[in-house]
């Protein structure tokens, strides 16, 4: 028995962090070497990459909910986690188990040889290995950092979503919106549809999508969402309108993009199925609505200027 056979889950996570000196080391060269050795099957019948500055996790959660409610086999890979690392990979709505990930860690380690994978690269490959063995209908993959050189971008995707672009991680991605947009546009694949979640994005994103022969669906041009009142909203394209009698639990702007993505992935979807999935979507720590009693309590604390601790 070697040392890896005796390692528990937390020991594995600690070990993986020692494989490189740098926590963030962008580039696809290292991960591509190991990815080719694994000879993985496609992650799912449909693979979706979700990039952008904000809203990636919520967009994935909306899509996950829509297709789970249709009894499809669905996986979501996202980061970072809120409490436990297992949150990064959900299979049919449930966090992956420790034992399942340990098995994947062992396989990645056996194929890695002397390739110095970063923590994110190693764990991303582990998640992809798990997903590739499950005969999934849909895999929704949240891009980690940027896009072009992010570990998730080794995938061939059937659809790319760019939620928005603003200044983030400037030490790695660049100091201007245009430079960051260039990195995020790197997830767009040849002849694969692209959903753009904002009406005004740097031209480089549309230019790349057009150059690669992609169908482009952009907010406020190809699809529109608007509040009807404080409790209702509607979404529409040129030939379709969907009315929602409630607001979603997650950010509304991301719901608009997820609805468009759902229809691109499965044009036969009925309005009632989209409505049900969008309204059931939730994600701990992401735009969660507080219960009325808790909100009243917090308002009371503010009014009396009482410290929380």
From TrEMBL:
Q: Start and end of every Mur ligase central domain?
A: 50-196
Q: Name one GO molecular function term.
A: ATP binding
**Which GO biological process categories is it annotated with?**
tetrahydrofolate biosynthetic process
> Which InterPro entries does the record match to this protein?
Folylpolyglutamate_synth (IPR001645), Folylpolyglutamate_synth_CS (IPR018109), Mur-like_cat_sf (IPR036565), Mur_ligase_cen (IPR013221)
Query: Quick one: a GO cellular component term?
Result: cytoplasm
Matches recorded under Gene3D superfamilies: Mur-like, catalytic domain (3.40.1190.10)
Q: Which domain of life is it from?
A: Bacteria
User: Does the keyword Ligase feature in the UniProt annotation?
Assistant: yes
From the record, give the transmembrane residue ranges: none
What are the alphabetically sorted keywords of the record?
A: ATP-binding, Ligase, Nucleotide-binding
Give the family from UniProt: Belongs to the folylpolyglutamate synthase family.
User: Can you say what this protein is called?
Assistant: Bifunctional folylpolyglutamate synthase/dihydrofolate synthase
Native source species: Paraphotobacterium marinum
């Amino acid at each position: 028995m070697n040392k890896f056979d005796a390692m528990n889950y937390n020991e594995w996570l600690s070990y993986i962090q020692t494989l490189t000196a740098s926590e963030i080391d962008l580039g696809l060269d290292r991960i591509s070497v190991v990815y080719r050795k694994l000879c993985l099957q496609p992650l799912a019948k449909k693979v979706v990459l979700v990039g952008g500055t904000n809203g990636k996790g919520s967009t994935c959660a909306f899509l996950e909910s829509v297709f789970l409610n249709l009894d499809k086999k669905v996986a979501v890979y996202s980061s970072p986690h809120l409490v436990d690392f297992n949150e990064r990979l959900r299979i049919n709505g449930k966090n992956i188990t420790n034992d399942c990930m340990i098995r994947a860690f062992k396989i990645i380690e056996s194929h890695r040889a002397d390739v110095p994978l970063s923590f994110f690269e190693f764990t991303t490959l582990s998640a992809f290995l798990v997903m590739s063995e499950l005969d999934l209908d849909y895999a929704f993959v949240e891009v980690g950092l940027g896009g072009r050189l992010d570990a998730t971008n080794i995938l061939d995707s059937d659809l790319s979503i760019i939620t928005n672009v603003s200044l983030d991680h400037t030490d790695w991605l660049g100091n201007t919106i245009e430079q960051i947009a260039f990195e995020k546009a790197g997830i767009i694949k040849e002849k694969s549809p692209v959903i753009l979640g904002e009406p005004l994005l740097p031209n480089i994103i549309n230019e790349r999508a057009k150059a690669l022969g992609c169908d482009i669906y952009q907010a406020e041009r190809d699809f529109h969402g608007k509040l009807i009142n404080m409790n209702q909203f509607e979404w529409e394209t040129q030939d379709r309108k969907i009315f929602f009698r409630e607001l979603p639990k997650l950010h509304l702007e991301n719901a608009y993009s997820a609805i468009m993505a759902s229809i691109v992935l499965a044009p036969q979807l009925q309005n009632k199925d989209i409505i049900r999935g969008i309204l059931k979507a939730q994600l701990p720590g992401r735009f969660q609505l507080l219960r009325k009693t808790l909100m009243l309590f917090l308002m009371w604390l503010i009014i009396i200027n009482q410290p929380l601790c």
